[in-house]
Design goal:
50% strand; seven-stranded antiparallel β-sheet; 478 residues; mainly beta; 45 strands
């Protein structure tokens, strides 16, 4: 009897403390819920439902259902305000007929994700997606468009939007709306919008208008290289897309651009003796707009005749008083071209004095032969010679106070300025024999002896110096 009493007390103690422990578990902060067996299922979809046995004490952030098959996972929140003792969800998309799925209800608290039991069901299919409307009705590459409708996929990755077969980037989606970006494409005009949700596809009844560049007018249909042409139209600047203008395959430099106007420079071409025509096209991204007529680049040069003389490699060319001159230092020949009568004439065959590699400078009726160098042996000269074009006579002047291998010159305030490959800068009055050294040329000059590039020219009241080696152009304001 005593043994039975001890056994009863032990069992009672275990039962009492076991019940007390179970009671503590049920009063913890986490909720407890059950996923109901599937009762409503047909060819249009399935209805999930769940019962909340205990809401717990933790704050409930969200609740809904998770379901999956061997290929995809889905999750959908049904939270509106406060959680009820039961909640449900009708699913009418993403379900494949005859495929087995798993479903679980869930509750998300501030500290944990609580899942209900898994329920297995075999789908009988779901409804196809439908498109009710989309907005805006037109747009450019990169424009955002919203589609409204029903039965779109719960997963953004399962919603595919295509315009004329080109897939668009879906930014976000729900079961009743999709926001996508118009993809880059070369097409202008009306296109079909199709939505594929899962394995089902729908096409919108209304078509979407993809806009593109248009050309309404061109300021001229011909011009010279370097001239400016103005193109009027629409959609030249859209969504930060790169805009380019081409004449045939040659890109034109754009100097001004707006959404309705482009100013571009007519490009240089290789053919200089005849007019050349080709299409003028504007490219905005992948889209192209063409002018209604071909654009003609006019030839800038005219062949007046063949040059009647042969020259050595050591010659210089220049102009003076509207006439052209060639002085061939190896052949001792000075040739004059009279543009008014289109005539070449040898004005001197006399021996050209001094060395053979000098700087020749035309000024008034004279040609000055300045400094230079000789090869055998290599020496730099300071000699200064003057050729009178009218008398055809050479005379020697006072030596210059500097020497060089290569030099260039320009005229400023009626005086000759010489810049040498030693970076020296001199102002010269040859007739008076006065020379003034100015501040040095700021760029180091490469000194190759065989045909170095070192030239100067005057343009728009500025002196430009072009030098080889560093490929630097210096502009000196007068």
């Amino acid at each position: 009897m005593k043994s039975w009493l001890l056994l009863f007390i032990s069992v009672f103690t275990v039962f009492f403390y076991g019940c007390e422990k179970d009671a503590v578990l049920q009063t913890k902060e986490y909720p407890f819920l059950i996923t109901d067996e599937i009762k409503e299922i047909d060819s249009e979809g399935v209805t999930f439902s769940a019962n909340v046995i205990d809401k717990g004490t933790a704050e409930i952030k969200d609740f809904g259902f998770k379901w999956s098959n061997s290929e995809s996972d889905f999750s959908y929140s049904v939270k509106q305000e406060n959680i009820a003792e039961n909640f449900s969800l009708r699913v009418t998309s993403d379900l494949k007929n005859g495929v087995q799925y798993y479903c679980q209800a869930y509750i998300q608290t501030s500290g944990a994700l609580v899942l209900g039991n898994k329920v297995i069901f075999q789908s009988q299919g779901s409804l196809p997606p439908s498109i009710a409307d989309f907005s805006p009705k037109e747009g450019y590459d990169g424009s955002r468009v919203t589609i409204t409708g029903s039965n779109f996929s719960f997963n953004r990755a399962n919603n595919h939007v295509k315009l004329n077969g080109i897939e668009a980037d879906v930014i976000r989606s729900t079961t009743d709306s999709i926001l996508f970006v118009v993809p880059a494409n070369a097409f202008n005009g009306f296109v079909e919008i199709t939505v594929q949700a899962g394995d089902k596809t729908v096409t919108a009844e209304e078509k979407f208008n993809i806009t593109g560049p248009t050309i309404s007018a061109i300021s001229a249909n011909e011009g010279y290289s370097g001239d400016t042409v103005t193109i009027a139209g629409t959609n030249f600047l859209e969504n930060e897309t790169d805009t380019k203008v081409f004449w045939g395959s040659i890109e034109m430099r754009i100097i001004n651009i707006s959404s309705t106007k482009i100013d571009a420079i007519i490009p240089p071409i290789s053919e200089l003796l005849s007019n050349q025509e080709d299409d003028l096209n504007i490219y905005v991204g992948q889209k192209k707009a063409s002018g209604s007529k071909k654009f003609t680049i006019l030839h800038a040069w005219m062949l007046e005749g063949n040059f009647p003389y042969s020259l050595s490699l050591n010659y210089q060319t220049f102009s003076n008083n509207d006439d052209g001159y060639i002085i061939d230092l190896d052949e001792n020949k000075i040739i004059k071209f009279q543009s008014e009568i289109n005539k070449w004439t040898v004005i001197s065959n006399d021996l050209i004095p001094g060395n053979k590699h000098s700087l020749c400078i035309p000024h008034n009726q004279f040609i000055y032969k300045v400094g230079g160098y000789s090869y055998t042996p290599f020496t730099e000269s300071k000699e200064l010679w003057k050729f009178n074009v009218e008398t055809k006579q050479w005379s020697q002047l006072q030596d210059i106070p500097f020497s060089f291998t290569k030099a260039t010159f320009y005229f400023y305030d009626g005086l000759i300025h010489i810049i040498t490959d030693k970076q020296e800068h001199w102002k010269c009055n040859f007739e008076n024999g006065t020379f003034q050294e100015l501040s040095p040329f700021p760029i180091e000059i490469e000194r190759p002896y065989e045909q170095p590039v070192f030239q100067s020219f005057l343009s728009e009241d500025r002196i430009f110096i072009v030098t080889q080696g560093k490929n630097i152009r210096i502009s000196i304001r007068k």
